[in-house]
Design a protein that fits this description.
Elements lengths: L1 H14 L3 E4 L5 E7 L2 E8 L9 H10 L1 H4 L3 E4 L5 E8 L15 H8 L1
Antiparallel strand pairs: 1-2, 2-3, 3-5, 4-5
Length: 112
């Protein structure tokens, strides 16, 4: 899934537009380009956002900030629910998906 997200980040940056893709597990990955980085997200689109218990996500995140703190819960008007994290791109040589920076497994765990 990290390779898939890496490709989305490259697409979002090159096209200067939001890029998203359905992952094999039914979740949606997205990348939103910023001037100084990119917002990445994992979650469910508007048709499936109701499967997430937002209160439970917030409680679990608050109890384990060391593990989940970099993921910010976000609910959109269309009913979609994503965990988003900001990646800094001030250093172009930096690997945007460095496991120390982004832990997709933690996000999936939090949404489960």
């Amino acid at each position: 899934m990290q390779k898939q997200l890496s490709n989305l980040i490259l697409t979002a940056r090159s096209e200067r537009a939001v890029a998203s893709q359905l992952a094999a597990n039914g979740m949606t990955l997205l990348a939103y380009p910023l001037d100084d980085g990119v917002l990445v997200g994992i979650g469910y689109d508007g048709k499936s956002g109701h499967v997430v218990d937002a209160e439970l996500v917030l409680r679990r995140r608050g109890q384990q900030m060391a593990r989940y703190g970099s993921w910010l819960p976000s609910m959109f008007v269309d009913g979609s629910y994503f965990l988003v994290s900001r990646l800094d791109a001030s250093d172009p040589a930096q690997n945007a998906l460095d496991s120390a920076t982004l832990d997709l497994a933690a996000a999936q765990e939090l949404l489960a």
